[in-house]
Amino acid sequence: MLSAEDRVHPAFARLPPWVQEKLSPKAIDYIRRVHHWVETECVPAERVVKAQLAVNKWKTPPLIQELRVKAKKEGLFNLFLPKSFGDLSPGLTNLERTMNCHAPETGNIELLAKYCNEGQKQKWLLPLLNGETSSAYSMTEPDVASSDATNIACRITRDPKDPDTLVVNGRKLYGNVAWNEDLSVYILMACSDPENPDPWKRHTTIIVPKPTPGFRIVRNLTIMGYDCAPEGHGEYIYENARVPAANIILGEGRAFEIAQGRLGPGRIHHCMRLIGQTERAYELALIRATDPRKKPRGKLIGEFDSNIERIAAMRIQLDSMRLVVLNAAHTMDVHGNKSGRYAIAQSKIIVPEMAANIIDECMQMYGGQGLTQHTALPEMWMYARFVRIADGPDAAHRHQVGRDQLKTAAAIKGRHDGYAKRYEELCRTWGVEKEEFA
To answer: Which of 61, 307, 339, 352 is 20 to 30 A from 256 via CA?
Structure first.
């Protein structure tokens, strides 16, 4: 239970009472310390990190490396694995750890921790957990409609002369850029059994080390003009790339099982990050609205009625986004990721679109400056727009939610038929003439 002092602390003030009541003493301590860390170490470092990237965009900035070391010493490294992961976790629930976390490592680390055997964990997971290496997830393809992942066509075959070796051929988009020296592995989803009558068992997930012969990067993909360095988004070719069969995760034909286990948490992570970024954008808008140097027609920007209403609308939308994500996190804790799929989909639909709209309004309040590198707003907006596609387009999530809701129609009709029957009984009892409705 939060103290009266904690309830007004910036780290907790936006949390609804039902969430505050569920925070363990451990979580309260972590959240306090993470908030202090972000405010004093991360936010002030942003422009320095950008300057270091300008010198070598595909190398992890030295300041980031230093912050990782300091975060480990402070016990603030790898807080995102929920307590269901046992000793690998700091012991927080999904609800308690609704704080910013880094993609794609969160999703990839959860995948490796959940589905890899012990040998694979020692070789690939532990270096990621220690921050010694980074990873990429390789799923999307340019030549098929991969929003329906059963279309994924990149092929995995066994070498007929050496069945312990897999041969991979195909083309992929969006795996992080190979030019970053910290990047060590790609987690690849590809088709291994195209003739299987069950389309959900045709695909396999394997670990592809970056220096694999036959595996090469074509180029970095910009996202709406941004190179997203130092991680980036690459386009890749597999030409008879040879990978040990020991690198298969969980088993052949189980890629969809793995993907769903990764993408559920991965989707809510995107939403957590977006809430943090949108709060930053909102703070910038408040600063701009009260800047005494900016007085069009002799009034502060925040004194115009339209902007007062804009600020109110943004605050309400932001709080709504947080409630949706908190609900999804709590649902995952109580009922599991699979049962929480509606709440996760709801978050993934609402949050990116609403975040983009809020950030757009913040840019508008900055006028021409809001479109330049004078603020981080354009890059924040780009990320929000990107997330409407990442880990499944929002149209696909809407389709899933809508399809699930239509399945409830029969039960709803049964209830309404009951209303009509009871209405007829009441008409007879009270001598009221029954009206006919469509």
So the answer is: 352
